[in-house]
Amino acid sequence: MKCSDLSKSVPLYLAGELQSGLSAELTAHLRSCAVCRCAFSEAADDVALDELVRASVFKDHVDHAAVDRRVRAGMHSEQRAPRRLIAVAAGIAAMLAVTVAAWRITVSAHANPVYAAAVRDYRLELIQKQPRKWFTDRDAIARLAKRVGLPSAAVTAFAPAGYRLAEGKLCFLDGRVFLHLVYASEHGDFSLFLRRPDDGSTGSGSIHSDHFAAEQVAGFQHAQLSALLVTDQSALAALQLATSAAAML
Amino acid sequence: MPPVVSRREDEFERVALCHSRSLLRVARRLSANAWTAEDLVQDCLLLAWRNFHQLQPGTNARAWLFRILFNVFYGEGRRLRRTPEVVPLSAEVRMVAPSSDRAMQISQALDSLPVDHRTVLLLGVVEGFTCSEMAEILGIPIGTVMSRLSRARQSMRKKLMSHPKESLIKESR
User: Fold this and answer.
1) What single DSSP character describes residue B5?
2) Which of these, B44, B39, B42, lies nearest to B69 by C-alpha position?
3) How many Å apart are CA A18 and CA A4, to the nearest integer?
4) pTM of the full structure
Protein backbone atom coordinates (compact mmCIF):
# COMPACT_ATOMS: atom_id res chain seq x y z
CA MET A 1 0.00 0.00 0.00
CA LYS A 2 1.22 3.54 -0.87
CA CYS A 3 0.84 6.67 1.27
CA SER A 4 -1.61 8.13 -1.34
CA ASP A 5 -3.99 5.15 -0.82
CA LEU A 6 -4.29 5.84 2.88
CA SER A 7 -6.85 8.68 2.66
CA LYS A 8 -9.33 6.32 0.94
CA SER A 9 -8.68 3.32 3.14
CA VAL A 10 -8.64 4.84 6.62
CA PRO A 11 -12.34 5.79 6.83
CA LEU A 12 -13.34 2.27 5.74
CA TYR A 13 -10.84 0.75 8.15
CA LEU A 14 -12.17 2.80 11.05
CA ALA A 15 -15.71 1.82 10.13
CA GLY A 16 -14.65 -1.82 10.03
CA GLU A 17 -15.62 -2.08 6.38
CA LEU A 18 -12.18 -2.55 4.81
CA GLN A 19 -11.52 -5.97 3.26
CA SER A 20 -9.32 -8.15 5.46
CA GLY A 21 -6.49 -8.29 2.90
CA LEU A 22 -6.37 -4.52 2.51
CA SER A 23 -6.68 -4.13 6.25
CA ALA A 24 -3.55 -6.21 6.75
CA GLU A 25 -1.74 -4.13 4.11
CA LEU A 26 -2.75 -0.91 5.86
CA THR A 27 -1.58 -2.17 9.23
CA ALA A 28 1.76 -3.16 7.73
CA HIS A 29 2.12 0.26 6.02
CA LEU A 30 1.38 2.12 9.26
CA ARG A 31 4.12 0.16 11.06
CA SER A 32 6.68 1.30 8.50
CA CYS A 33 5.51 4.94 7.78
CA ALA A 34 5.62 7.51 10.62
CA VAL A 35 3.83 10.24 8.60
CA CYS A 36 0.88 7.97 7.79
CA ARG A 37 0.82 6.72 11.37
CA CYS A 38 0.41 10.30 12.58
CA ALA A 39 -2.32 11.05 10.00
CA PHE A 40 -4.11 7.81 10.88
CA SER A 41 -3.98 8.68 14.55
CA GLU A 42 -5.59 12.07 13.92
CA ALA A 43 -8.28 10.59 11.69
CA ALA A 44 -9.03 7.87 14.22
CA ASP A 45 -9.22 10.45 16.94
CA ASP A 46 -11.66 12.56 14.90
CA VAL A 47 -13.90 9.56 14.34
CA ALA A 48 -13.83 8.72 18.03
CA LEU A 49 -14.56 12.31 18.99
CA ASP A 50 -17.44 12.50 16.53
CA GLU A 51 -18.99 9.40 18.02
CA LEU A 52 -18.74 10.84 21.52
CA VAL A 53 -20.37 14.10 20.38
CA ARG A 54 -23.16 12.22 18.62
CA ALA A 55 -23.78 10.04 21.65
CA SER A 56 -23.87 13.10 23.91
CA VAL A 57 -26.37 15.02 21.75
CA PHE A 58 -28.59 12.02 21.07
CA LYS A 59 -28.98 11.58 24.82
CA ASP A 60 -30.75 14.95 25.02
CA HIS A 61 -34.42 14.67 25.83
CA VAL A 62 -36.13 16.20 22.79
CA ASP A 63 -39.91 16.40 22.95
CA HIS A 64 -41.06 17.83 19.65
CA ALA A 65 -44.77 16.97 20.09
CA ALA A 66 -45.57 20.30 21.74
CA VAL A 67 -43.81 22.23 18.98
CA ASP A 68 -45.63 20.21 16.31
CA ARG A 69 -48.96 21.01 17.97
CA ARG A 70 -48.18 24.74 18.06
CA VAL A 71 -47.01 24.72 14.45
CA ARG A 72 -50.17 22.94 13.31
CA ALA A 73 -52.30 25.47 15.18
CA GLY A 74 -50.32 28.29 13.55
CA MET A 75 -50.81 26.72 10.12
CA HIS A 76 -54.58 26.53 10.64
CA SER A 77 -54.85 30.11 11.86
CA GLU A 78 -52.77 31.37 8.93
CA GLN A 79 -55.03 29.50 6.52
CA ARG A 80 -57.98 31.31 8.06
CA ALA A 81 -56.22 34.64 7.60
CA PRO A 82 -57.47 35.23 4.04
CA ARG A 83 -61.06 34.95 5.28
CA ARG A 84 -60.26 37.47 8.01
CA LEU A 85 -58.67 39.72 5.38
CA ILE A 86 -61.85 39.57 3.29
CA ALA A 87 -63.88 40.59 6.35
CA VAL A 88 -61.47 43.45 7.07
CA ALA A 89 -61.60 44.55 3.41
CA ALA A 90 -65.41 44.47 3.52
CA GLY A 91 -65.28 46.57 6.69
CA ILE A 92 -62.97 49.10 5.07
CA ALA A 93 -65.20 49.23 1.98
CA ALA A 94 -68.25 49.83 4.18
CA MET A 95 -66.43 52.59 6.04
CA LEU A 96 -65.44 54.19 2.74
CA ALA A 97 -69.03 54.00 1.52
CA VAL A 98 -70.27 55.64 4.71
CA THR A 99 -67.56 58.30 4.43
CA VAL A 100 -68.49 59.04 0.82
CA ALA A 101 -72.18 59.18 1.74
CA ALA A 102 -71.41 61.50 4.65
CA TRP A 103 -69.26 63.62 2.39
CA ARG A 104 -72.08 63.86 -0.14
CA ILE A 105 -74.49 64.87 2.57
CA THR A 106 -72.03 67.41 3.92
CA VAL A 107 -71.42 68.87 0.48
CA SER A 108 -75.16 69.00 -0.22
CA ALA A 109 -75.76 70.44 3.21
CA HIS A 110 -73.44 73.29 2.35
CA ALA A 111 -75.47 73.83 -0.81
CA ASN A 112 -78.86 73.62 0.95
CA PRO A 113 -78.83 73.22 4.72
CA VAL A 114 -82.63 72.96 4.94
CA TYR A 115 -82.70 70.02 2.54
CA ALA A 116 -79.93 68.29 4.54
CA ALA A 117 -81.75 68.94 7.81
CA ALA A 118 -84.96 67.49 6.33
CA VAL A 119 -83.10 64.33 5.29
CA ARG A 120 -81.56 64.00 8.75
CA ASP A 121 -84.98 64.33 10.35
CA TYR A 122 -86.48 61.82 7.92
CA ARG A 123 -83.77 59.29 8.84
CA LEU A 124 -84.16 59.83 12.56
CA GLU A 125 -87.93 59.55 12.49
CA LEU A 126 -88.71 57.06 9.74
CA ILE A 127 -85.59 54.94 9.31
CA GLN A 128 -84.22 54.81 12.85
CA LYS A 129 -87.70 55.28 14.34
CA GLN A 130 -86.53 57.17 17.38
CA PRO A 131 -89.16 57.24 20.13
CA ARG A 132 -90.91 60.60 19.71
CA LYS A 133 -94.34 61.98 20.38
CA TRP A 134 -96.35 61.90 17.17
CA PHE A 135 -99.94 62.96 16.57
CA THR A 136 -102.04 60.53 14.61
CA ASP A 137 -105.42 62.18 15.09
CA ARG A 138 -106.37 64.38 12.13
CA ASP A 139 -107.84 67.11 14.32
CA ALA A 140 -104.71 67.25 16.41
CA ILE A 141 -102.58 67.49 13.25
CA ALA A 142 -104.88 70.23 11.94
CA ARG A 143 -104.35 72.19 15.15
CA LEU A 144 -100.57 71.85 14.73
CA ALA A 145 -100.85 73.18 11.16
CA LYS A 146 -102.89 76.12 12.39
CA ARG A 147 -100.30 76.91 15.06
CA VAL A 148 -97.62 77.41 12.39
CA GLY A 149 -99.88 79.45 10.14
CA LEU A 150 -100.71 76.79 7.57
CA PRO A 151 -104.09 76.16 5.92
CA SER A 152 -105.10 73.32 8.23
CA ALA A 153 -107.99 71.93 6.21
CA ALA A 154 -105.90 71.66 3.04
CA VAL A 155 -103.02 70.01 4.88
CA THR A 156 -105.09 67.30 6.48
CA ALA A 157 -107.10 66.71 3.30
CA PHE A 158 -103.99 66.15 1.15
CA ALA A 159 -103.16 62.54 0.36
CA PRO A 160 -101.65 61.32 -2.91
CA ALA A 161 -103.23 58.28 -4.55
CA GLY A 162 -102.60 55.17 -2.43
CA TYR A 163 -101.23 57.09 0.56
CA ARG A 164 -102.79 58.03 3.86
CA LEU A 165 -101.75 60.61 6.44
CA ALA A 166 -100.15 58.47 9.18
CA GLU A 167 -98.82 60.98 11.70
CA GLY A 168 -97.58 64.49 12.25
CA LYS A 169 -95.47 66.59 14.60
CA LEU A 170 -93.60 69.87 14.70
CA CYS A 171 -89.86 69.96 14.17
CA PHE A 172 -87.01 72.38 13.64
CA LEU A 173 -85.08 72.42 10.37
CA ASP A 174 -82.18 74.82 10.17
CA GLY A 175 -83.67 76.98 12.92
CA ARG A 176 -87.19 77.13 11.52
CA VAL A 177 -90.35 75.39 12.62
CA PHE A 178 -91.84 72.91 10.14
CA LEU A 179 -94.83 70.65 10.30
CA HIS A 180 -93.55 67.15 9.64
CA LEU A 181 -96.22 64.94 8.09
CA VAL A 182 -95.70 61.27 7.34
CA TYR A 183 -97.68 59.61 4.56
CA ALA A 184 -97.74 55.85 4.37
CA SER A 185 -98.70 53.25 1.81
CA GLU A 186 -98.02 49.57 1.33
CA HIS A 187 -95.18 50.49 -1.07
CA GLY A 188 -93.37 52.90 1.26
CA ASP A 189 -93.47 56.14 3.22
CA PHE A 190 -92.54 59.71 2.56
CA SER A 191 -92.19 62.80 4.69
CA LEU A 192 -93.60 66.16 3.88
CA PHE A 193 -92.15 69.17 5.73
CA LEU A 194 -94.35 72.29 5.54
CA ARG A 195 -94.00 75.81 6.81
CA ARG A 196 -95.42 79.22 6.15
CA PRO A 197 -93.28 81.13 3.62
CA ASP A 198 -91.27 84.18 4.63
CA ASP A 199 -93.12 87.48 4.40
CA GLY A 200 -92.97 88.95 0.93
CA SER A 201 -91.93 85.67 -0.63
CA THR A 202 -94.30 84.49 -3.31
CA GLY A 203 -92.35 81.53 -4.65
CA SER A 204 -91.79 80.50 -8.22
CA GLY A 205 -94.01 77.41 -8.12
CA SER A 206 -91.25 75.35 -9.71
CA ILE A 207 -90.01 72.13 -8.11
CA HIS A 208 -86.36 71.70 -7.09
CA SER A 209 -84.92 68.32 -6.43
CA ASP A 210 -81.74 66.94 -4.92
CA HIS A 211 -80.48 63.62 -3.57
CA PHE A 212 -78.64 62.69 -0.39
CA ALA A 213 -77.20 59.20 -0.49
CA ALA A 214 -80.32 56.98 -0.60
CA GLU A 215 -82.85 59.78 -0.15
CA GLN A 216 -84.50 62.04 -2.69
CA VAL A 217 -85.65 65.54 -1.81
CA ALA A 218 -88.07 67.66 -3.80
CA GLY A 219 -89.07 71.18 -2.75
CA PHE A 220 -91.46 73.82 -3.91
CA GLN A 221 -92.87 77.07 -2.61
CA HIS A 222 -95.93 79.09 -3.37
CA ALA A 223 -97.80 81.92 -1.68
CA GLN A 224 -99.31 79.88 1.15
CA LEU A 225 -96.59 77.41 2.06
CA SER A 226 -93.09 76.09 1.54
CA ALA A 227 -92.83 72.31 1.18
CA LEU A 228 -90.03 69.71 1.23
CA LEU A 229 -90.75 66.10 0.32
CA VAL A 230 -88.28 63.42 1.38
CA THR A 231 -88.42 59.76 0.37
CA ASP A 232 -86.18 56.78 -0.22
CA GLN A 233 -88.11 55.97 -3.38
CA SER A 234 -86.83 56.85 -6.85
CA ALA A 235 -86.16 60.41 -8.02
CA LEU A 236 -89.09 60.12 -10.46
CA ALA A 237 -91.44 59.02 -7.68
CA ALA A 238 -90.26 61.93 -5.53
CA LEU A 239 -90.97 64.40 -8.35
CA GLN A 240 -94.40 62.91 -9.02
CA LEU A 241 -95.33 63.13 -5.32
CA ALA A 242 -94.06 66.72 -5.12
CA THR A 243 -96.01 67.66 -8.26
CA SER A 244 -99.13 66.16 -6.80
CA ALA A 245 -98.60 68.05 -3.52
CA ALA A 246 -97.89 71.34 -5.32
CA ALA A 247 -101.17 70.97 -7.26
CA MET A 248 -103.34 70.09 -4.28
CA LEU A 249 -101.98 72.12 -1.36
CA MET B 1 -65.34 17.44 14.49
CA PRO B 2 -61.65 17.11 13.54
CA PRO B 3 -60.15 19.96 11.46
CA VAL B 4 -60.07 19.41 7.69
CA VAL B 5 -56.49 18.82 6.60
CA SER B 6 -55.71 20.34 3.23
CA ARG B 7 -53.45 18.70 0.69
CA ARG B 8 -50.85 21.41 1.28
CA GLU B 9 -50.88 20.73 5.02
CA ASP B 10 -50.57 17.02 4.36
CA GLU B 11 -47.57 17.64 2.11
CA PHE B 12 -45.97 19.96 4.66
CA GLU B 13 -46.38 17.32 7.38
CA ARG B 14 -44.68 14.75 5.19
CA VAL B 15 -41.87 16.94 3.89
CA ALA B 16 -41.11 19.37 6.70
CA LEU B 17 -42.81 18.68 10.00
CA CYS B 18 -41.23 15.22 10.15
CA HIS B 19 -37.87 16.97 10.73
CA SER B 20 -38.99 18.84 13.84
CA ARG B 21 -37.07 16.44 16.11
CA SER B 22 -33.76 17.10 14.29
CA LEU B 23 -34.40 20.82 14.25
CA LEU B 24 -35.24 20.85 17.94
CA ARG B 25 -32.18 18.76 18.80
CA VAL B 26 -29.88 21.31 17.12
CA ALA B 27 -31.83 24.30 18.39
CA ARG B 28 -31.62 22.92 21.93
CA ARG B 29 -27.81 23.01 21.71
CA LEU B 30 -27.80 26.47 20.14
CA SER B 31 -30.10 28.37 22.46
CA ALA B 32 -30.12 29.16 26.13
CA ASN B 33 -32.89 26.80 27.21
CA ALA B 34 -35.53 24.36 26.03
CA TRP B 35 -38.23 27.02 25.82
CA THR B 36 -36.27 29.34 23.54
CA ALA B 37 -35.28 26.33 21.42
CA GLU B 38 -38.95 25.44 20.98
CA ASP B 39 -39.74 29.05 20.04
CA LEU B 40 -36.91 28.98 17.53
CA VAL B 41 -38.14 25.79 15.87
CA GLN B 42 -41.74 26.97 15.91
CA ASP B 43 -40.76 30.23 14.18
CA CYS B 44 -38.66 28.26 11.71
CA LEU B 45 -41.44 25.84 10.80
CA LEU B 46 -44.11 28.54 10.49
CA LEU B 47 -41.78 30.54 8.25
CA ALA B 48 -41.24 27.38 6.21
CA TRP B 49 -45.02 26.90 6.03
CA ARG B 50 -45.50 30.45 4.72
CA ASN B 51 -42.82 29.91 2.09
CA PHE B 52 -43.62 26.27 1.36
CA HIS B 53 -44.65 27.14 -2.20
CA GLN B 54 -41.03 28.19 -2.86
CA LEU B 55 -39.69 24.71 -2.14
CA GLN B 56 -39.11 23.06 -5.51
CA PRO B 57 -39.75 19.31 -5.85
CA GLY B 58 -36.54 17.37 -5.53
CA THR B 59 -34.89 20.02 -3.35
CA ASN B 60 -33.24 18.89 -0.12
CA ALA B 61 -36.07 19.86 2.23
CA ARG B 62 -34.03 19.06 5.34
CA ALA B 63 -31.21 21.40 4.29
CA TRP B 64 -33.81 24.04 3.38
CA LEU B 65 -35.35 23.78 6.87
CA PHE B 66 -31.99 24.07 8.58
CA ARG B 67 -31.18 27.13 6.46
CA ILE B 68 -34.42 28.72 7.69
CA LEU B 69 -33.58 27.69 11.26
CA PHE B 70 -30.22 29.44 11.09
CA ASN B 71 -31.73 32.49 9.40
CA VAL B 72 -34.17 32.74 12.29
CA PHE B 73 -31.42 32.01 14.79
CA TYR B 74 -29.02 34.63 13.44
CA GLY B 75 -31.78 37.13 12.72
CA GLU B 76 -34.95 37.11 14.76
CA GLY B 77 -33.47 34.58 17.17
CA ARG B 78 -30.84 36.99 18.46
CA ARG B 79 -33.19 38.05 21.22
CA LEU B 80 -33.89 34.43 22.12
CA ARG B 81 -30.20 33.55 22.28
CA ARG B 82 -29.61 36.38 24.72
CA THR B 83 -32.40 35.32 27.01
CA PRO B 84 -30.65 34.33 30.22
CA GLU B 85 -31.20 30.90 31.68
CA VAL B 86 -33.60 31.39 34.59
CA VAL B 87 -34.95 27.88 34.80
CA PRO B 88 -34.66 26.13 38.11
CA LEU B 89 -33.55 22.53 38.28
CA SER B 90 -36.83 21.08 37.09
CA ALA B 91 -37.68 17.55 36.12
CA GLU B 92 -36.95 18.40 32.49
CA VAL B 93 -33.47 19.70 33.26
CA ARG B 94 -32.71 16.52 35.18
CA MET B 95 -33.85 14.47 32.21
CA VAL B 96 -31.61 16.48 29.88
CA ALA B 97 -28.60 16.15 32.13
CA PRO B 98 -26.12 13.51 31.00
CA SER B 99 -26.08 10.37 33.07
CA SER B 100 -22.37 10.23 33.91
CA ASP B 101 -19.47 12.57 34.71
CA ARG B 102 -17.78 11.80 31.41
CA ALA B 103 -20.99 12.42 29.45
CA MET B 104 -21.39 15.68 31.40
CA GLN B 105 -17.82 16.66 30.51
CA ILE B 106 -18.41 16.07 26.77
CA SER B 107 -21.73 17.89 26.85
CA GLN B 108 -20.19 20.88 28.62
CA ALA B 109 -17.23 20.92 26.22
CA LEU B 110 -19.65 21.07 23.28
CA ASP B 111 -21.78 23.79 24.85
CA SER B 112 -18.72 25.91 25.65
CA LEU B 113 -17.57 26.02 22.00
CA PRO B 114 -18.08 29.29 20.10
CA VAL B 115 -21.47 29.13 18.39
CA ASP B 116 -19.96 28.99 14.87
CA HIS B 117 -17.84 25.98 15.80
CA ARG B 118 -20.67 24.29 17.66
CA THR B 119 -22.91 24.83 14.62
CA VAL B 120 -20.65 22.94 12.19
CA LEU B 121 -20.16 20.11 14.68
CA LEU B 122 -23.91 19.78 15.16
CA LEU B 123 -24.69 19.93 11.45
CA GLY B 124 -21.80 17.81 10.22
CA VAL B 125 -21.26 15.30 13.00
CA VAL B 126 -24.70 14.97 14.58
CA GLU B 127 -27.01 15.64 11.61
CA GLY B 128 -24.72 14.19 8.96
CA PHE B 129 -24.68 17.05 6.48
CA THR B 130 -21.78 17.19 4.03
CA CYS B 131 -19.43 20.19 3.97
CA SER B 132 -21.05 21.52 0.79
CA GLU B 133 -24.53 21.20 2.33
CA MET B 134 -23.32 23.03 5.43
CA ALA B 135 -21.86 25.78 3.24
CA GLU B 136 -25.27 26.12 1.57
CA ILE B 137 -27.17 26.10 4.87
CA LEU B 138 -24.92 28.64 6.57
CA GLY B 139 -24.25 30.74 3.48
CA ILE B 140 -20.47 30.56 3.87
CA PRO B 141 -17.66 29.17 1.64
CA ILE B 142 -16.94 25.46 1.90
CA GLY B 143 -13.34 26.23 2.95
CA THR B 144 -14.66 28.14 5.95
CA VAL B 145 -16.84 25.18 6.89
CA MET B 146 -13.87 22.82 6.78
CA SER B 147 -11.61 25.11 8.81
CA ARG B 148 -14.34 25.67 11.41
CA LEU B 149 -14.91 21.94 11.67
CA SER B 150 -11.20 21.33 12.15
CA ARG B 151 -10.93 24.03 14.83
CA ALA B 152 -14.03 22.78 16.55
CA ARG B 153 -12.56 19.30 16.82
CA GLN B 154 -9.25 20.72 18.07
CA SER B 155 -11.07 22.73 20.74
CA MET B 156 -13.01 19.69 21.83
CA ARG B 157 -9.83 17.65 22.11
CA LYS B 158 -8.18 20.37 24.21
CA LYS B 159 -11.17 20.56 26.52
CA LEU B 160 -11.02 16.81 27.00
CA MET B 161 -7.19 16.87 27.31
CA SER B 162 -7.08 15.22 30.72
CA HIS B 163 -7.98 12.10 28.79
CA PRO B 164 -5.32 11.00 26.31
CA LYS B 165 -6.20 10.44 22.65
CA GLU B 166 -6.18 6.69 23.02
CA SER B 167 -8.85 6.92 25.68
CA LEU B 168 -11.13 8.81 23.29
CA ILE B 169 -10.85 6.03 20.79
CA LYS B 170 -11.49 3.41 23.44
CA GLU B 171 -14.47 5.34 24.82
CA SER B 172 -16.17 5.60 21.47
CA ARG B 173 -16.02 1.83 20.86
Assistant:
1) P
2) B44
3) 16
4) 0.53
Tens digit of each residue's pLDDT, chain B (173 residues) = 555 567 888 899 999 999 999 999 999 998 867 778 888 899 999 999 999 998 888 889 999 999 999 998 887 545 555 554 444 444 344 344 455 677 788 888 999 999 999 999 999 999 999 999 999 999 999 999 999 999 999 999 888 876 554 455 555 55
- The answer to whether B114 touches B63, Cβ cutoff 8 Å, is no
Give the length of chain B.
Answer: 173
Largest CA distance in chain B: 62
* Subunit contact B106:A56, Cβ cutoff 8 A: yes
Three-state SS for A221? strand
Among A41, A49, A80, which would you mutate to test the B interface (most chain B Cβ atoms within 10 Å of its Cβ)?
A49
**Measured at the alpha carbon of residue B110, what is the angle toward residues B104 and B113, in degrees to the nearest 5?**
140
A229 — phi, psi (to 5°)? Answer: -110, 130
Q: What is the pLDDT of residues A92-127, one digit of tens each?
A: 888 887 776 665 555 454 557 888 888 888 888 888
**Distance between CA atoms of residues A84 and A74, nearest Å:** 15
Distance CA A32, CA A14 (A): 19
Q: Which residues of B touch A (CB under 8 A)?
A: 3, 6, 9, 12, 17, 20-21, 23-25, 28-29, 38, 41-42, 45-46, 49-50, 92, 95-96, 98-99, 103, 106-107, 110, 121-122, 125-126, 153, 156-157, 160, 165, 168-169, 171-173
ipTM: 0.80
Q: How far apart are CA B145 and CA B132, in angstroms?
A: 8
Q: Which residues of A touch B41 (CB under 8 A)?
A: 64, 67
